[in-house]
Amino acid sequence: MTSQIVLSFVLVFVYTVTAGNHDIYHGYSVHGVRLRDQADQIVLHKLEEDLNIDVWNHGAPELRDALVMVSQENKREFLATLDKNGMNHYLHLADVASSLKEYDTQVSSWKQSRTNRMPFEDYPRYAEVDAYMEKIAREYPNLVTLVNAGPSFEGRAVKYLKISTTNFADPSKPVYFIDSTMHAREWVIVPFALYTIHRLVENLRDQDRDLLENIDWIIMPMVNPDGYEYSHTDARLWRRTRSFNATISTECWGVDANRNFDINFNTLGVSSNPCSDIYPGHEAFSELEARYIRDVILENIDRMQLYLNVHSFGNYVVFGYGNTSLPQNVVQLHQVGAAMGAAIDAKKLDKAPFYLIGNSNLLMYECSGSSQDYAQAVGVPFSYTLEMAGYEYDFRVPPQYINQINTETWEGIVASARLANLYYRARSRS
Ligand SMILES: *[C@@H]1O[C@H](CO)[C@@H](O)[C@H](O)[C@H]1NC(C)=O
Ligand SMILES: *[C@@H]1O[C@H](CO)[C@@H](O)[C@H](O)[C@H]1NC(C)=O
Ligand SMILES: [Zn+2]
How far does residue 51's CA lie from ligand 2's centre (Å)? Predict the structure, then answer.
């Protein structure tokens, strides 16, 4: 073959990979829904179970609109149900497929506009995330330990970093555990997780020394690497893992890892349809990826003071339980969550909504089997789900916003770490 033929081969391949993969969203649209009260939320939730609609943002009554993606075939019934219940709605996105194509163009021109960007200034693929973690561990051996929790369903290593000035041996220090990218399509979390590592290790500033002196950190940037890669190669809006079980379904793969934990498993906010985005799996901890998080929590339970399960988007900090029951320390739990939200708000762009803080069920929606609830129930005093900012871009955050979102969200990490550390000092004295 001449090199010209090889080149055109390559071009055809690149073209089909980048341009062909949004056709599955042809005819899909996204609708904003105004919520007046909890009854409206229940209507939406019922639609989620019956029609298999895709809820992008659950919204909060009187405060924040829900965003829902529907297929062409379900659209009429969806809108009719809203109308029947007197719920106001509007078109947010007319054509998901073409908007995702446009988004691809933005992301690739960002990548091409500069070659030496750090992985936390971009949307890095799994291999780049992995290389960054390896590099940090190699360059800071006295501070950082790289751990391979095990393989994902498709065999990618799920890794995390332990960051400690005392090699995790000082029992007087609390542990702060951050995991991210449980849901594949929430891309902006990936640079944020790496940015957090960067600020703690490569770029620790004088005013932040206490964060390392007083606290041990565990950061798992990519819980669900199979889903994340799939969202790059095949289905941009993929949320779940990529596990396959022919007994359950040959058509639909994957489980919502955030319904798969052994806490009130398969009771609330789940769907038994294996094609649903809130399918919890056939049993608790059927997913390897969920088991790795469980193992990190249980291994460090004596000192784990704060667990943060990071998602995007919507500007929320929520805590357990997903069945409306409040943990005993709810006042402190709310205070630390509010400190996190307020610190982010102080740095956000004006156009972003203020963070909402509260119980995940009372504020947003009922759910069971979440990692947030699991960590709370097994004894982590401060367990949260963070829904980072998406600005007005939902999952399609333009790369130009990554730096803003990284730096504002970092402030929330810092504020919550300091306050949770104070409570840890009080706990160890009592
Ligand atoms: C597949 O699903 C079936 C039925 O729910 C279950 O009994 C079986 O253990 C699953 N297989 C694996 C490998 O998880
Ligand atoms: C909600 O879940 C928590 C944690 O499992 C449990 O302690 C509580 O009793 C449950 N509340 C209700 C109303 O079921
Ligand atoms: Zn999520």
Answer: 28
